C-alpha cells in the first residue's frame, strides 16, 4: 500500500474512537492550563477554581448545586466544603440561597460579578472557537454536539462507577457473614480437656472409651 493510498484511507470505527479520545484528552490538558492561569489572575486556589468550575457548569445546566453535591464533586468532606464556601462567600465569589424545592437545603450560586468576570476572561476563547468552526457546516456541528454529548455521558458513567458507595462493594462480605433467616448460626464447640485421675494419672476420656 502506497503512502498516498494510506493517507486517503478512511479510518476504521476503532481508529475514530481513539482519535476522539485523544482529542478529548488534548482539550482537557489545554483547559487545565487555561484554568490555572485564570486562578492565578484572580487569586484563587486550585480547589477554589474547581469549585467555581463545577458551580458554573451546574448554573449553565440550570441545576445549581447544594453543598453536599459540591462536596461529592470535589471529593472532600462536608466540613471542608463548609470552610471553602464560607471563604468564597466572604470573597464575593458565591452566595448561599434557600432551595425553592426543599427549604431545609441551601444552594451555592455564583455571584453575578463572578460570572461576568469568567465570561470576560473566556470571551477571547469563544472568538477563537467561532473562527475555527466557521468553515464547518451546521450539520457537522450538530454531529459534533451528538458525539460530545455521548462522550460526556460515558465519562459520567465511568465517574459513577469510580465513586460508587463503598457499602456496595462490601455487601457480599457482609452477606456471607450473616446467618440465613430462621437459622441459628452454629458456633464452634470449645475442645474439652480430659479430667485426670490423681490416682492413676490417666484421663477420664480414655477410661470411658475402654468401657
TrEMBL record:
Residues 165-211 are annotated as: Disordered. SUPFAM superfamilies: Winged helix' DNA-binding domain. Residues 13-153 form the HTH marR-type domain. InterPro entries: HTH_MarR-typ, WH-like_DNA-bd_sf, WH_DNA-bd_sf. It holds the Pfam family MarR_2. Keywords: DNA-binding, Transcription, Transcription regulation. The keyword DNA-binding applies. SMART domains: HTH_MARR (SM00347). Residues 165-181 have a biased composition (Low complexity). GO terms for molecular function: DNA binding; DNA-binding transcription factor activity. The keyword Translocase does not apply. This is Multiple antibiotic resistance protein MarR. The lineage of its organism: Bacteria, Bacillati, Actinomycetota, Actinomycetes, Mycobacteriales.
